[in-house]
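Hallway conversation turned thread

IA: we were arguing at lunch whether anyone had actually written out Sugar (Pentulose or hexulose) kinase end to end. Turns out nobody had. So, for the record, here is the sequence (554 residues) and right after it the structure tokens. Reply here if something looks off.
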Amino acid sequence: MTMDAGPAITGGRTALGIELGSTRIKAVLIGPDHTPLAVGSHDWENQLVDRLWTYSLDDVWTGVQQSFAALAGDVRRRHGVELTTVGALGVSAMMHGYLAFDADGALLTPFRTWRNTNTGRAAERLSAEFGCNIPHRWSVAHLYQAILDREEHVARLDHLTTLAGYVHWQLTGEKVLGIGDASGMFPIDGATRGYHAGMLARFDQLAAEVGVELTLAELLPAVRLAGQPAGTLTGAGAALLDPTGRLRPGIPLCPPEGDAGTGMVATNSVAPRTGNVSAGTSIFAMVVLERELARVHRELDLVTTPAGDPVAMVHCNNGASELDAWVGLFAEFARGLGAEVGPSEVFETLFTAALGGASDCGGMLAYNYLSGEPITDLEEGRPLFLRSPDSRLDLGTFMRTHLFASLATLRIGMDVLQKTEGVRLDRMFAHGGLFKTEGVAQRFLAAAIDTPVSVGDVAGEGGAWGIAVLAAFTADRAPDRSLADHLDTTVFTSASLRTVEPDPIDVAGFDAFMQRYVAALPVERAAVDHVGVGQRRTADTETTSAIPTEEASE
């Protein structure tokens, strides 16, 4: 905390970042030295409605307003001043998905999140037509699937955006998007750092072939790079953010970004040969490339950093949620025995036990698939635990199995990147609640990708802190300074890291686990085929909260 925090806050020498993660909406206020001065958050959950994962827009604004109110209260308590302005503001959120609006700004269909995997036909056709991988969760796949399904709303479509783009639009009136988030909507041309013109034209042709006339370029948000201005907070936007009326309009905003981009910023992983792994509801790796990949791989997305540099993304729909559910079960058992233990203590006890488990998980297997998983060709998921009859069911091995399972699909994608494409990494940074128990998940990730893994305080307050840093970069940017230089020389000069080298025994154990995991995938497929799921349910009901499961989580 800076000594002059009060004057910095009242003088507007601050930046505010708001990130809408998958289970938490968080606001972070940073000072002139990028130190967090105050935080506020609000928990929320997605719902599975008519077999599609969604959030209501009412919940978006309830969560944003409550996060800001909690932040303002934190400012009041810690610094004794009212929060009436900030020097810069930024919004980040889960990437991808489908938010479609008509010319009057009305939502045409419930928000379809990144988690949906109903876009298989569209993703396959677009990947073939474009000559690059278009994953199920990308916005263009959602749009083309709606066209193929002849959904009525397509004829009235006027504007398509992401969750971050939507919130930014409501705050500023500007239909823009940071290039990192935009790269998860539609492929980016590395030369122009805008949407790929040839692919835009081909998409319009594909739509016309099924009787839909549109110009996709007119539907997508304008693309902005890190450091470029992206509008100012309007009076209506200020009232949306702070219904009390204390917050004044006129605050400049940076381009809205996706959680993957803010995770790169929060871990100082925007330069070539750097990467980060974020573990939350989903788990994904972002690796900044120094050359083009040799060929197209369905396991890899090609997206960009917030500055527009190419990134290979390994995105797995299923991360820590199933592990969190098992920990919740043990916590419930402890309460049944009358033990007064907090969630953090439960997680630490169980995670630490995993260090003593069999290195190859001793014949146990788990699949953490609450939803579909495109990397393993599953359109739906069924959480599954199984073991061989000769395996010994001990706590340490059981927990190691579920931790390995949380990393297994990521390993499949990283094998393509590291072994097939020969991409080299100078450093891999891990962040998210999965890594809060020191030396456990970090050690297992190092084994999974056979690469040194660092964790530390550089992730700060996670993606919300990352978008606040981007907001400050826009407000104070020197014309000749790149984002990578800014992070190295201004933001992360005193960062502290703990690095774990891969242990050869763990590496061999994870390899053996993966052989069984891949061989038994037909069992998971059979579970999907033969075990039904209800039409409506609330996802990720968690009895503990020690793993924050948002994308690019804190």
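OS: looked through it. The longest strand covers residues 36-43.
IA: good, adding that to the notes. The chain has a mean pLDDT of 92.
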